[in-house]
Amino acid sequence: MTPISAKLDLTKTDKTYYSAKSVPQPKHFPAYHYLMVSGEGPPSSDSFARCTEALFTMAYGVKQLYKQEGREFTVPKLEGLWWVNGGHDALSVTREAWRWKLLLRMPDFVSARSVETARDHALTKKKMLEQLHDVSFESLHEGACVQILHTGPYDSEPESIAKIQAYMELQRLIPNGLHHEIYLSDPRKASPDTLRTIIRYPVAQQ
Fold it and tell me: Most buried of 4, 12, 152, 192, CB within 10 angstroms?
């Protein structure tokens, strides 16, 4: 009898990527592949919700394809890249001006062809979810980073960001990429005070 392979759970097998300390620390990350979808506006918007739905729909479609091949994996934690055009600070503008790219990391064995197959299947079931067309399969290489584990509501993140900025100034580092968040907690199930979020910044030496 052929043994059934164990389900791959990246959040458990790659602790370097999915864990952080409550104080700033340097890290280095190679290139990884992700499902991605972009948009703008507040996280409370309908657009954000529909993009999130499209992203997870695609991820579970890919997961199902590989499960049939005996290469099962757990869909990882949701992530987000955040920025504001024009060099403005995110807190100095309205949330309608926020831009974001939502990400779900994929195992190394996932191929672009399987992503397109999953898209075709998803579109037959959710024809009205137009954002399925916008989900892409891309590589992201952040390299040297500084990160911190933020515990608490999203609105209090500036406290942790200030710690990262102080660390970067001390180490003579400058930002070299977008503000990156990894949502370890599900806000639908956890209270705001217990939410755990990794905040990560790619950096370069001055």
Answer: 152
Q: Which of 44, 26, 166 is nearest to 98 (CA)?
A: 44
Burial zone of 92 (CB within 10 Å; 0-12 exposed, 13-18 middle, 19+ buried): exposed
CA–CA separation, 109 vs 185, rounded Å?
26
List Cβ neighbours of 14 (8 Å cut-off, separation of 6 or more). Answer: none
Name the token pair of 148.
Answer: 């911190």
Name which residue leads in pLDDT, 115 or 91: 115
- Residue pair 58/35 in contact by the 8 Å Cβ criterion: yes
Determine contact, residues 187/195, Cβ cutoff 8 Å.
yes
- Residue 45 φ/ψ region, left for φ over 0, alpha for ψ in the -120 to 50 degree band, beta for the rest: beta
Q: How confident is the model at residue 94 (pLDDT cuts 50, 70, 90)?
A: confident
Q: How far is CA 76 from CA 19, 56, 104, 161, 201, in A?
A: 13, 10, 6, 24, 20
Q: Is 204 left (phi over 0), alpha (psi -120 to 50) or beta?
A: beta
Task: Give the three-state DSSP class for 105.
Answer: strand
pLDDT digits (tens, 9 = 90+) for 11-35: 999 999 999 999 999 999 999 999 9
Give me the pLDDT at residue 3, please: 41
Instruction: Classify domain 15-205 at the CATH topology level.
Output: Multidrug-efflux Transporter 1 Regulator Bmrr; Chain A (3.20.80)
Q: Which of 42, 19, 38 is nearest to 155 (CA)?
A: 42
